[in-house]
Amino acid sequence: MSPQVASTTPPTTAPSSPETPLAEPGRANPMMTVLERYGLLVVLVVLIIGFTIALPGEFFTTTNLKITLEGQAVILILALAETIPLRAGDFDLSVAAVMVASASLIAVLTTQDHMAVIPAVIFAVIGAAAFGAVNAFVIVGLGVDAFIATLGSMTWLGGLTAAFTGGNVLSSLPSSLTSFSNGTWLGISHDVFYGWGLVVILWYVYEWTPFGRRLLFTGGNRDASRLTGIHVKRIRASAFILSAVISALAGVVLAGSVGAVDPGSAGAYLLQPFAAAFLGTTVIQFGRFNAWGTVIGLYLLAAGVSGLQLLGASSWVSDVFNGVTLVLAVIFATTMRQGALAGRLRVGRRRVAEVAPAAPEQAALPPS
């Protein structure tokens, strides 16, 4: 028979119930919470002030603001599309390829096959959804690593796009398509409002719908999510399909705003959406891919590149700035996450010590 341990001192405080956690992250250190939520926003404001002082009459102007907003509209939509699989714990490197392929398909159907714009757009969106379903089958169904699978699908889709376009830049797009993006409201192009509208939609989905919460739980811990009844495979598959569909809509905006499509331009749109999405995890909702954080991250990148170029930097500075910022964002997020975890553990141990009974005296064990 196993020995019993007797306690001579009863606990003076009832242990915490499951409904009252021992320690809540962020409450142990309010300054850490403020830094986690708004640090990147402060950096953006400081960056704007710095460039405004260094470039009086050039940086903080209505013209430069309009150029920056309109120049980032397509990237914003693409970055938001990327947050969906990232929130579920998966990479999708193919979003830029889907955008360019969809834009190219619309251009071919409307200029060469003389199809109306709306049917061409519907056809492109359906094709993107099918592509997302293929990604989902390979990754979720067959268990192939998402990074490798989408890298491969990005490559073969780029080759397929070059095949059906002949590798030629497609121009002379219908005026109804160009006016869809280039029309203005309040002096700003429509494509900017499309991006902002998508921000609001995804914010609502992420924060207020069961699907958004299930995406977050799936990305946090798939095994635990599965045990709680979440259909993890269905959620992951849906994320890839939605990401592809939104990327196709970005292709519609791209074709309309530029008025032409370069089938080989996908590589130019690969890094910045990822950088914006990862920067977004360091603001508003620390450690989570979120819509408003992605907006702030993207505009920080845009402000940095715009300011450096106005100062006379070469065109390659955008790639360097975006790449370095992405690495720094990942380092910062990892460091802050480790610090927050250590803080939670310290607070948790202290709370446990407060509610734990005094050290018991072990009863004398009978001789064996």
Structure description:
It is a single chain. 68% of the residues lie in helices and 1% in strands. It has 368 residues and is mainly α. The chain has a single domain, classed as ABC transporter involved in vitamin B12 uptake, BtuC (Orthogonal Bundle). A two-stranded antiparallel sheet has the order 1-2. α1 (30-54) packs parallel to α13, α3 runs antiparallel to α11 and α13 packs antiparallel against α14 (317-355). The longest helix is centred in the C-terminal third of the chain and has 39 residues, at 317-355. The N and C termini lie close together (11 Å).
Topology:
Blueprint: H1 30-54, H2 62-71, H3 73-87, H4 95-111, H5 117-141, H6 146-165, H7 175-182, E1 184-185, E2 188-189, H8 190-208, H9 210-220, H10 222-227, H11 232-258, H12 271-280, H13 291-310, H14 317-355
Antiparallel strand pairs: 1-2
Helix pairs in contact: 1-13, 3-8, 3-9, 3-11, 3-12, 3-13, 4-5, 4-6, 4-11, 5-6, 5-11, 7-11, 8-9, 9-11, 12-13, 12-14, 13-14
